[in-house]
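Let's inspect one such protein example.
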Amino acid sequence: MDQEPEQLDKTGHEQRKSTASSSARPTVAPGNLIGGQSRARSLVSVVIFMVIVLELGPAIIYAVAHGIFGSFRIIESPEVLLFLEAGNFAILFGVTACMALVEDRHIGDYGLPLQGIFGKNFWLGALLGIAEISALVGLLAAFGGYSFGNLVLQGRDVLRWGGVHLVLFLVVGLYEEFLFRGYAQFTLGLGIGFWPAAVLLSAAFGYVHLGNGGENWIGAASVAVVGLLFAFTLRRSGNLWYAVGLHASFDWGETFLYSVPNSGEVLRGHLSSAILHGPRWLTGGSVGPEGSVFSFLTMGLQFLVVMLLFPKRETQKSGEITSPDN
């Protein structure tokens, strides 16, 4: 029986199109469609990609930052951190564009299609992100683990620093999601399957956060789980815009609005003199709310929300990815 030719649509998902009809059939996950040699190529491609965007790129941007700002401490300089993250994202985007050109794909195939920029998926994610951090901090406060404290910003400083943090965490969301769930997820998924790739990259996502000053293994485990959540949003929604919105608003709420540590880091310019007090299992200690036992509860609720917002289609098989429409 002749196999039908496979094509890639503009969103990067594989479609089978009949030679007798132009009507598209359900998207097919590519993991089982290639042989061992292709698996090896995908692994090599991802390793080369990660070396460039995690080692060479940041080294260049850090050197440039030192030339512009001189000596600095990142936690005291959200503006410098914004420069670093924006530079890293620019390099990441450029390298991804080069890989797309070499592999004859469209850059939108890797999770950030332009037609979805700041669309419905992004704003849904942003709404659910601020809702999650509010629920998490609310649980900490209900059990006596969080106090808002006094406002340390007044007047225009609230808007200025709120805006700086908002732009910063939008760039952080774009950079980290595109880094761990863009080209790397797409290409590694071709070789070993979507979920094995998501597990490996989420573990790496958690591991790199151990480099933060106040981070620990519990916080890193929480980051790895949220990486799986972001991968799940990609699988169900078909792109990364929901994850970017959720990531950005959660970090903004945690760092600026509720003024608590974010993966072990407390940045200058937060809103209040908030205090975490109580046992580490409750507050997360130096990690912040991401290290709290309640963090795993709110993440579990987020999985349920994504299942409701982006239900699996009746015709969709376990190996398929829902095509994005936002």
